[in-house]
Amino acid sequence: xxxxxxxxxxxxxxxxxxxxxxxxxxxxxxxxxxxxxxxxxxxxxxxxxxxxxxxxxxxxxxxxxxxxxxxxxxxxxxxxxxxxxxxxxxxxxxxxxxxxxxxxxxxxxxxxxxxxxxxxxxxxxxxxxxxxxxxxxxxxxxxxxxxxxxxxxxxxxxxxxxxxxxxxxxxxxxxxxxxxxxxxxxxxxxxxxxxxxxxxxxxxxxxxxxxxxxxxxxxxxxxxxxxxxxxxxxxxxxxxxxxxxxxxxxxxxxxxxxxxxxxxxxxxxxxxxxxxxxxxxxxxxxxxxxxxxxxxxxxxxxxxxxxxxxxxxxxxxxxxxxxxxxxxxxxxxxxxxxxxxxxxxxxxxxxxxxxxxxxxxxxxxxxxxxxxxxxxxxxxxxxxxxxxxxxxxxxxxxxxxxxxxxxxxxxxxxxxxxxxxxxxxxxxxxxxxxxxxxxxxxxxxxxxxxxxxxxxxxx
Length: 459
Prior knowledge:
Blueprint lengths: L8 H8 L1 H24 L3 H15 L2 H11 L8 H18 L8 H33 L4 H32 L3 H25 L6 H4 L13 H9 L2 H21 L1 H8 L5 H26 L4 H24 L2 H37 L4 H4 L1 H25 L10 H26 L4 H12 L8
Helix pairs in contact: 1-7, 2-5, 2-7, 2-8, 2-11, 3-6, 3-17, 4-6, 4-17, 5-6, 5-8, 6-17, 7-8, 7-13, 7-15, 11-17, 11-18, 12-18, 13-15, 14-15, 14-18, 15-19, 17-18
């Protein structure tokens, strides 16, 4: 029996455009905040890295908190959309603050300014916005194919935005005159654009009533659980823990790719190559996302597609390492593209996998935790991306890198090679191992069979 359809094409496109807003924040922050702070403001990379790591201690608990709050929310806009809408206002303000460190302040005050702005952005506003945005996948449709399509549209916009940000930002800053004032102006423009697109995305979809999401049953009593119980429900779900692990590793990978701006500038002696490598990463990802819904249907699920994709990704990154030591930039780009092509399916169907993970909790625990389940997306971005950026700072400091110096020691150049060539390969191998165990669809099917539930029923 064919599943009921809930969305028009423009709902899917409108939803997906929300990741333009999300990646205005994420791509800009992870790719450029460290180089802005070290090379323009003159802060020490090691101290910045430590501040980012400490920030994670403050915002680590907020993921489950906001997920739980979304599950408890009842408003005219629904459960998730209010948090997505209003959370981004704070994102826009604090993103600008991260790139507006006053040059006239003393060094200690500059570190404090950045720490407060970065912590509020990641621990409060981005968390509320991103978890709500991800949770919409299971709140606006019960159709499994539409959920995969939403993920594909979402990440097509995400990687297109990352490509644009990584390609134009260096030149855009130079066009604005360079220096601290130029970084601030670029941040203001990006934040304003993100705020407009986020609002459009919120208004492009409507959440299903609780009765329809629960097959005619009311949700009364299902959401009366506290933060501690929500946490227990999550940690009892082994697939949630796997997704968190894969997402964190994926963001660590992205942070190392973002550190490529140092590799391009100091090892390859051409900082403009960073934008060209961004094309090699993002265009294959976008191509893979276009075909992901079809491949999921052809292979009757997401598990085999994701695992086989990451096998290709591992091979691609291994070849990047070889080409890097050969000094062959065109080959590096070609193999970077191969790796990205393999990563695409997991990016495209990740939200649908999380929805299946939420279904697993409902089947095993009898609780609806859709919003809380999507805390893994924000948790992964904050811990993986934040710690990844911190590690970049620590490793650069350990290697003797000083951003304001005209020449860097060989130890710093060797460290840049390690960060850009070897660490992404290591993270891809670890993700592949996690995905090899993440057959949540098979687990759900087995439980449904045991309970006499139709296999293709979406709960």
